Amino acid sequence: MNESWAETVARATELRRELHRRPELAWAEQVTAATVRAELDAIGLAWKACAGTGIVVRLAPDAAGRHTALRADLDAMPIPEATGLPYASENDGVMHACGHDGHTAALLAAARWLHRHRSSLPGPVTLLFQPAEEGGHGARGMIDDGALDGVDVVFGWHNWPGLPFGRALCPDGAVMSANGTFEVELVGRGGHASQPEATRDPVLAAAAVVVALQQIVARRMSPQQAAVVAVTSLRAESAATVTPGSASLAGSIRAADDGARTRVFRLIDEIARATAAAHGVAAEVRTVVRYGATVNHPGPAAELRERLSTVLGPDWHDPAAPTPVLASEDFSYYLQRIPGAFALLGTGTTAPLHSADYDFDDALLEPAARLLVGLTGAPEPP
């Protein structure tokens, strides 16, 4: 394989759009995995399956230096695409609304370059093509299946429409938040809507709980402590003349660290139960821990920032951008296990992530692939 860097990036663009046309949900990335594996075969790289649809590639395993891992995610989201693009999703109700098609294509571009220069690698390199980032704990599955065996440091990145193209975030410490979900079931006594005194109305109680939960961020947490409590659904189905016997609400939370998440969960339980009792109904609260905060290690983060400066220029950092961002990432599992760092790269797209109008910005493929290559110590692309 003796292609130029420009040809490598052009191939990555083709692959990105091919992946975009055929998105698949977490743990169901069969076609996606087959596409990546076929491309690795064409490059001449040996690979092995990991955590089902995941893929691990090892380069220069006998090199004497630091063993570096680079990660991309494979899965898409259950969102009907509305972009109208010629390469829009062909799978009804599923689309790449978070840019994992771009992350995968950029790592494949880096793979091509690293294979071409494998004899110049100072240390071993592992490429991680990970399934099920979108709530499926795919990173944990990869780790359990040995993906980090022998690895000294791990790097990853995510495209970020909230930042302008050419800007990035890569702090020491938390770069993305911890998250979780909650459900509150309110049980009262149903009856005829004309006789409220004979009922214990769970609908009124549910509405009161929704309002009362807003005090967590506004009054129960320090203003310096970033957190989000979002009630995203409320259900109390009934006929127009019937007060139902039960109602339920659910939502998600974000917190800057795992300890703050524990406090938010405790407050949700306390407030929901007390508010329900004040309305004469009972509350059952269920909380689910999802991903931990994505916490960069200082040494690798400094290395990644230096690389961002080389690739994006000295003005890559936006000092006005707040950190941590309150989205979450299962890259946190890797950083809980070994040193590493994660960056958010600004993109020229205007639609937000998880939007039916979102599309990954192909102009980001070249700097992202260049960033990954440099973290391994391989020769710099032209």
From TrEMBL:
Cofactor binding note of this UniProt entry: The Mn(2+) ion enhances activity.
Domain Peptidase M20 dimerisation: 181-277
Cofactor: Mn(2+)
Gene3D superfamilies, sorted: 3.30.70.360, Zn peptidases
Single Gene Ontology MF annotation: N-acetyldiaminopimelate deacetylase activity
GO terms under biological process: diaminopimelate biosynthetic process
Matching InterPro entries: Amidohydrolase, Bact_exopeptidase_dim_dom, Peptidase_M20, Peptidase_M20_dimer
Keyword Hydrolase appears in the UniProt entry: yes
Keyword Hydrolase applies: yes
Residues where Mn(2+) binds: 98, 100, 134, 158, 354
Superkingdom in the source lineage: Bacteria
Keywords, comma-separated and alphabetical: Hydrolase, Manganese, Metal-binding
Protein name according to UniProt: Peptidase M20
Organism of provenance: Tsukamurella pseudospumae
Lineage, opening ranks: Bacteria, Bacillati, Actinomycetota, Actinomycetes, Mycobacteriales
